[in-house]
Design a protein that fits this description.
With about 300 residues, this protein is α/β, with parallel strands linked by helices. Helix content is about 40%, strand content about 25%. The strands form four sheets. It has a five-stranded mixed β-sheet with strand order 4-3-5-14-6, with helices on one face.
């Protein structure tokens, strides 16, 4: 038995809260993880985990062993990091989490160039719009778009600011009129992003600094910015969309931006990664590349 590999499997099971998640993180089979933990228990002569059909819990011995194995594996990781620092080349699998629309429409544009610049790195990109716990799910770094990030123990590197635009097709505006002030939105079919807080009650700051609020409604709400853009492109109504999703369509005249004099809170694009005593070369390479890419305003 490879005791070090078994120790890594045991730690992964504890930190990901499951054998399947640990297997995915370690990129080995569920059977291999289970066998290694069983062999470790046999070697130590103690039970480390209480298992049921749906969950598990650490035994007292398991808690003690986890604490010590965590220190040992962290020290080994630091030793390996010290060696790779001398090499100065990012390497290994880099697990990235990103919002679905941003991953498909923006990250995909520059990720190939990043990989070409760092041939020792391979990327496992997971795009979704749910909250992801980087540590529990084994991600190295996340790219997030948010009005405000909640307090956390993660390191946050702000990369860019992205405004949101109200857009519609020229045909829709000819048929229904162009809103001149936020209150006009109440008479329009507004396409709503369902994951946004108070999506149906947008707030604006006017050119004179005055606040404006309006209640909007429409025939479509969706948890996908791409779906809302497609609906707007089909002439269904007005959509509030991040500029990165619609700036090309606006530049080509396929969509028209309205209410441009009325500001709404912008989205901030940030890179987030777990705190540690060191930052791995592969994570630093991605964060530095993204920071340089977005140093010039893109939208």
């Amino acid at each position: 038995m490879d005791q070090l590999a078994a120790m890594k499997s045991f730690r992964a099971v504890v930190e990901t809260q499951g054998f399947s998640a640990a297997a995915a993180q370690l990129q080995i089979s569920h059977t291999a993880v289970s066998r290694q933990v069983q062999q470790l228990e046999a070697l130590l002569g103690v039970q480390l985990l209480h298992r049921t059909t749906r969950r598990f819990a650490l035994t007292e011995a398991g808690q003690t062993y986890y604490a010590h194995s965590q220190q040992i594996l962290d020290q080994l990781e630091q030793a390996a990091f010290a060696v790779t620092q001398h090499q100065g080349k990012p390497s290994g699998v880099l697990r990235i989490n990103a919002p679905m629309s941003f991953g498909l429409e923006e990250l995909s544009l520059w990720l190939p160039a990043f990989l070409a610049a760092h041939p020792g790195v391979s990327v496992d990109l997971v795009c979704n719009d749910r909250f992801v716990d980087l540590i529990e799910e084994g991600f190295d770094v996340a790219l997030r778009l948010a009005y405000q990030l909640s307090d956390s123990t993660l390191v946050v590197k702000r990369l860019a600011v992205c405004d949101e635009w109200w857009v519609a097709t020229p045909g829709y505006l000819r048929r229904h009129g162009t809103p001149q002030v936020p209150a006009d939105l109440a008479t329009h079919n507004c396409l709503v992003y369902s994951l946004m807080q108070k999506a149906t009650q947008p707030h604006f700051i006017g050119p004179d600094g005055t606040g404006h609020s309006v209640t909007v409604r429409g025939s479509l709400q969706a948890n996908s910015g791409i779906a809302l853009r497609a609906a707007a492109m089909a002439g269904l109504g007005l959509a509030l969309s991040p500029a990165f999703l619609v700036h090309r369509e606006v530049a080509r005249g396929e969509l028209v931006r309205v209410l441009g004099d009325y500001r709404q809170p912008p989205l901030t694009l940030s890179a987030l990664y777990p705190q540690s005593r060191h930052l791995s070369p592969k994570v630093r390479a991605l964060v530095d590349y993204a920071a340089e890419h977005y140093r010039t305003p893109r939208w």
